[in-house]
UniProtKB/TrEMBL annotation:
<protein>
    <recommendedName>
        <fullName>Mur ligase central domain-containing protein</fullName>
    </recommendedName>
</protein>
<feature type="domain" description="Mur ligase central">
    <location>
        <begin position="109"/>
        <end position="252"/>
    </location>
</feature>
<dbReference type="InterPro" id="IPR050061">
    <property type="entry name" value="MurCDEF_pg_biosynth"/>
</dbReference>
<dbReference type="InterPro" id="IPR036565">
    <property type="entry name" value="Mur-like_cat_sf"/>
</dbReference>
<dbReference type="GO" id="GO:0005524">
    <property type="term" value="F:ATP binding"/>
</dbReference>
<dbReference type="InterPro" id="IPR000713">
    <property type="entry name" value="Mur_ligase_N"/>
</dbReference>
<dbReference type="InterPro" id="IPR013221">
    <property type="entry name" value="Mur_ligase_cen"/>
</dbReference>
<dbReference type="Pfam" id="PF08245">
    <property type="entry name" value="Mur_ligase_M"/>
</dbReference>
<dbReference type="GO" id="GO:0016881">
    <property type="term" value="F:acid-amino acid ligase activity"/>
</dbReference>
<dbReference type="Pfam" id="PF01225">
    <property type="entry name" value="Mur_ligase"/>
</dbReference>
<feature type="domain" description="Mur ligase N-terminal catalytic">
    <location>
        <begin position="14"/>
        <end position="97"/>
    </location>
</feature>
Length: 306
């Protein structure tokens, strides 16, 4: 059985990743600063090894196959130092996720706003079609039990492309690791709160993201954002750039319906934000083999608090 140790399990994504890896058959140990007794109990009940709150470098051993590093771990973390001394393979979360989804069709949703909503819609449609998929998300999605699922049977991997720094050892940004087959780019809005010093640096990260789309891949992009549109116009020739905007609707008898070639489908949410994100999700699902009519039927039942 392969052994893996995860540092900083107090990060929600790391916790869910630990549980998903264990379920896949790995021998998992974890550590973190600020772990509650409730989390310790949850980990132990799942079969993961957790020695309690804090760092335990003496527990790391050379026969561990690799160490996964949380995004908030500092260079002086005693377990990170010990892992280096032992010569263990150290992976960031995005590196690990990419390695475990190499043979799958990766759908990566990126941008400043709308990622969670688009992902929720894709999940809704895939579940309605009973399509099996793995996922790795930084957001909580109500339709899913946790942030991470890893399996052997799924051929699709749905990933949330986060633009934050990856780890203390890797200064590239998380979304630069995933190499999507299907990329969705919503919009670009730099703020001083990001991990990017300037708007140009922020823009360059997304330029890198589009350059790393797999050969013959698809870029589904919001045509209402000037910077996103500029990126789409400059992708490689082998990439198909597919624009999206707000989906058309019609009002009838006090209700709102999606206006489509397959008929009119009722929806519960009718604002511009919802209708724009819906189109992005529809185009991604089409690439995954979900017919538009089936997508519309699924989204007619969809409800989310935006």
């Amino acid at each position: 059985m392969r052994k893996v140790h995860l540092i900083s399990v107090t990060e929600p994504l790391v916790l869910d990743l630990a549980l998903a890896i264990h379920e896949k058959g790995y021998e998992v140990s974890v550590s973190g600063d600020g772990i509650t007794e409730e989390v310790v109990a949850k980990l132990r009940a799942a079969g993961c090894t957790c020695h309690g709150n804090g760092w335990f470098p003496e527990r790391l051993i050379k026969d561990s196959n690799f160490v996964v590093l949380g995004a908030t771990v500092k260079q002086d973390n005693p377990e990170l130092i010990k892992a280096k001394e032992l010569g263990l393979l150290i992976l960031s979360i995005p590196e690990f996720i990419f390695q475990r989804t190499k043979e799958k069709t990766r759908v990566v949703v990126a941008g400043s706003r709308g990622k969670k909503t688009i992902i929720s819609m894709i999940v809704c449609a895939l579940q309605r079609q009973k399509l099996v998929f793995d996922y790795a998300l930084t957001s909580e999605v109500a339709l899913l039990p946790n942030r991470v699922r890893m399996s052997y049977e799924a051929r699709i991997a749905l990933i949330e492309g986060d633009e934050h720094v990856t780890s203390a050892l890797e200064k590239r940004f998380q979304l630069e690791f995933y190499r999507p087959h299907i990329a969705i780019l919503t919009n670009l809005s730099w703020t001083p709160d990001t991990d990017h010093a300037t708007p140009d640096a922020y823009y360059d990260t997304f330029r890198s993201f589009t350059k790393l789309i797999e050969r013959e891949g698809k870029l589904i992009y919001f045509e209402g954002d000037r910077m996103v549109k500029q990126l789409a116009e400059n992708v490689r020739e082998d990439i198909t750039a597919i624009p999206y905007g707000e989906h058309a609707v019609i009002e009838k008898d006090g209700a709102t319906f999606l206006q489509t070639r397959y008929g009119d489908f009722p929806i519960r949410i009718a604002d511009s934000y919802f209708l724009t994100n819906l189109n992005a999700a529809r185009l991604a699902c089409r690439q995954l083999g979900v017919k538009d009519a089936d997508f519309y039927r699924a989204l007619s039942e969809y409800s989310v608090s935006l």
